[in-house]
Amino acid sequence: MDTLRIDRRVVLVTGAASGIGHAIARACAAEGATVHLADVSDSVHEAAGKVTAAGSGSVTSHVCDVTDPDAVRTLVDDVTAASGRLDVAFLNAGINGVPSLLQPGGAIDELPFAAWRRVMDVNLDGLFHCLQHCARVMKEQRSGSIVVTASTAGLRAEPRVSYPYVASKAAVVGLVRQASLELARFGVRVNALAPGPVVTNIGGPGPRPEAAVAAWEDSIPMRRWGRPDDITGAALLLASDDSSWMTGGVHVVDGGASALTQIPS
Ligand code: NAD
After folding, report:
1. Residues 6 or more apart whose Cβ sits within 8 Å of residue 114
2. How do residues 52-71 score in pLDDT, each as one tens digit?
3. Residues in the ligand 1 pocket, defined by CB under 6 Å
């Protein structure tokens, strides 16, 4: 697309082995960007193969656990050493639960602290580490766009979502706003994307009971779950100069779900 200008930009995507992050990495490659995929899973290497096939620029995969601050520092340093700069960071890695410990929509008095900590560790602390190191590089080069995957669950209470997920994503929104304030004078923009329910490995209807899927669809005016490719247009806009006066925003992409004042439970 002529209106999107991330060709030859150096892009990092965390959580890029599957779902939304993978779709964003593919879309960036198709726009001619140099793409670095990072994920805790080894399957990031296979994912990078698919991204390479989608574009013409260089594609590199990195195994990195965002909960490890040293690993994140190394990741960001490796990206800048290999590509000379870092123009766009999609900070997207996240989890919504801990199998066996955490039930979506479960009661607060039954919530194991270990499950709370684990979700916070990935979704909030992991984002903090990534934000810190991307900001370090982008402040120095005095340019950059950081796009964080938050969630509509960070903007309101949602009946079928876990406590730590909602709390972590609300905190993510605060972190994005605060970082945008500091980084604006360095020419670095920071925005959040807030997707509604998207069919992926964490958010998909696959393992969920049919009734739960139907309940979600009832709460989406467009009457369907999102697909990862539904998120990429907004992601590319926030990455590119087409959004050059947009920072500190939270951009909802949810088939209209947030327009409803009440969700059927
Ligand atoms: P997904 O499970 O398909 O992708 C998440 C990726 O993050 C996986 O590849 C996973 O291996 C990786 N990851 C998990 N922990 C990590 C860690 N510690 N370090 C590095 N990588 C790690 O799920 P998705 O739905 O594509 O999720 C992407 C983002 O979108 C998450 O932040 C999620 O909270 C957010 N989100 C998803 C939905 C949805 O309905 N799917 C809705 C709103 C927001």
Report:
1. 98, 101
2. 998 888 999 999 999 999 99
3. 14-15, 17-21, 39-41, 65-67, 92-96, 122, 126, 149, 151, 195, 197-198, 200-203
Conformation bin of residue 39: beta by default, left when phi > 0, alpha when psi is -120 to 50: beta
Q: Half-sphere exposure of 179 toward its Cβ, with a 13 Å CA cutoff?
A: 30
Instruction: Quote the Cα angle for 62-128-88, to 5°.
Output: 55
Question: pLDDT at position 214, please?
Answer: 78
Which of the two residues, 4 and 1, has the higher pLDDT score? 4
Residues present in the chain in total: 265
ipTM of this predicted structure: 0.99
The pTM of this model reads 0.95
| 19 backbone φψ class: left, alpha, beta (φ>0; ψ -120 to 50) | left
CA nearest to 174, candidates 238, 119, 221, 123 = 123
